[in-house]
Amino acid sequence: DIVLTQSPGTLSLSPGERATLSCRASQSVTRNYLAWYQQKPGQAPRLLIYGASSRATGIPDRFSGSGSGTDFTLTISRLEPEDFAVYYCQQYANSPITFGHGTKVDTK
Amino acid sequence: QVQLQESGPGLVKPSQNLSLTCSVSGGSISSGGHYWSWIRQHPGKGLEWIGHIFYSGSPYYNPSLRGRVNISVDTSRNELSLKLSSVTDADTALYYCARGARGTDSWGQGIPVTVSS
User: Fold this and answer.
1) pLDDT at B87 over 80
2) Which of B47, B52, B107 is opposite residue A99, by nearest beta carbon?
3) Is residue B10's pLDDT more than 90?
């Protein structure tokens, strides 16, 4: 199984600041089949990024993804109040599909 | 825009079987290019992929569920089903059905399932 390790576990920032979230895979993610999701309390996850760097439909351009192989990054350029949430990475290259344990972005 | 809605019992006794259904609207489950998934989230925890199926192909399952899981589609009803046998309290979770292609782009609201006698 590909194990995804997300860091940090919690990121405490203020609105307007830049958030940088990391996702490291235990082995190379083929074809960069790596996605990022945002989840708010009581809601289903929402797809933000697929293919490591492609924004999903309707996702603001302050969200960007980068990386390849085993190291991936989600960047939120300027945090808006609605961006405080938990973020998960997921690899869908290999079965079983796996998720990271999440990074919580909360208000400083 | 496709919408997914899970349904089923919210409470299941230990050792019994769990059956959930996902109704798909706004799109056909037999349209090409998508796979249909079940994903669960234990209380206060992260996400666990249970398995997925292409409407015309064989399902893929998480080996951690050790042969207890069955996923199928009913194209005539535009529904996805999950059957999980011999449940224990470790199967208490919020269960989501979802659609995937390039990432998982559509999710149901989730249905909470508690395993308890």
Assistant:
1) yes
2) B47
3) yes
